[in-house]
Amino acid sequence: MDSPDRPWWRGAVIYQIYPRSFADSNGDGTGDLNGVRDRLPHLRDLGVDAIWFTPWYASPLADGGYDVADYRAIDPAFGTLADAEALIADAAAMGIRTIVDVVPNHVSSEHAWFKAALAAGPGSPERERFWFREGRGEHGELPPTDWVSSFAGGTWTRVPDGQWYLHLFAPEQPDLNWNHPDVRREHEDVLRFWFDRGVAGIRVDSASMPVKDPALPEVPRTYEAGGHPFIDRDELHDIYRGWRAVADSYAEPRVLVGEIWLDDQQRFARYLRPDEMHSAFNFDFMGRPWEAKQLRESIQSTLDAHAPVGAPPTWVLSNHDVTRPVTRYGREDSSFSFATKRFGTPTDPGLGERRARAAALLTAALPGALYVYQGDELGLPEVEDLPLEALQDPMHFRSGRTDPGRDGCRVPLPWTRSGHSFGFSPDGSGAPAWLPQPAAGWGERSVEVQYRDPRSMLTLYRTALALRRSEPGLRGERFSWLDSTEDVLAFARDDVVCVVNLGAAPVPLPDHHEVLLTSVDLDGDHLPADAAAWLRA
User: Fold this and answer.
1) Which stretches are transmembrane (predicted)?
2) Considering 259, 284, 377, 471, which one is annotated as catalytic?
3) Per-domain residue ranges for the chain?
4) For tag attachment on the chain, is the N or C end more exposed, with fewer CB atoms within 10 Å?
């Protein structure tokens, strides 16, 4: 609920949609915007305040849409600009705001600017919008630096005229030169383009990476804060102050949300100063293992980092890049790291689901904004047995095929118990889903099956989000730790108490007047292992 002293985004529940995998309206096997429109009642009933779309723009899909060819056009696989405008309006009519992605670090190699740069040749104004450089070595045969890509491998690709261009991700994603005024002006115009169409906010992808040291030095073994050649450069803050000015120029100010992967909490908080971004993703919490000490440390450090700048924290268990909680929490090492993803890592599905239910209540009880990745409300597991020939993620290929990539958390959702695509595509359509869905068990996790099951993951999420909205204590921002044993997290939000047992044995509940919600059945007056409860004190 919005108010002058508490804007909606400070405590919102924001649902992430990966358009290719949410719902397919035309039967071609790829999710689209009209599919989302058809399924908006699910999101309304779930109780979300906003939906965030990963890129829906025109793209060759070399990196799932994060290689944008045209920010002012919807990719034909997803629909049209008119479809996007209708979706924004339909969602708003249900009280659901829309957030879209912007990717400032790079564009697609099919973007008009990059094609013009290739055609114009060395030394041209068109190339100055990117990072074209001569190579090292006697004949320029070596790349300008030895920087390592976020997708493994090198960060430079040579073009036929002999120059090299920089790409911190895939070769199909050339990095922009943010020292060029065209780049800054264009992105501010893109913000206005979508804000004018009713978008409530922008999620800024890889927000700490767009600015580079113009000297392009090698990455030093140690460096001062702000001294990395392409991560967390101080010049970034002036860019985002410009974006904030654009966002604040609207009668209902728009919101900026940063994807900021930084270990230094003080540097992280700089992006959330009152004249920069409104909030940022909390990746530290998402990556921690299912251990009380670790999670408590992450929660406290998150609150401490946000307090000086007055920004609300955010909480998220997964996204379109990360192994799903039901799978991750069932592993011996329940933390998450891109560097350790490998095929064949064993998991205990029952344990993982039990912990994921408890984690859902933990995150929903914390102060700030809550993000829910599509399918987590259904308890979907990571699909880890996709046929190798079906994999599409560049992280898999650029790792020498040792990393399974991110396709396993992007498998299309099940809406119905049966059907060739479990309701993802319309009945009677013949096209298979763009990623194969598991034949066994997928339909039993569908919305249709879970909707009226009082013990389902979907019912747990719907109940938790309804209480989060109705309970005054959960709507505010007060938070205080309660005394507990080392394997238990316990905290109060006014008169609502959240208790999470991460130990191996049941623990007694603290004094309370009412049990509001539990992730599993209580054991008398004890909370079982790997379980959570909301109580009224």
Assistant:
1) none
2) 259
3) 13-104+183-457, 112-166, 479-536
4) N
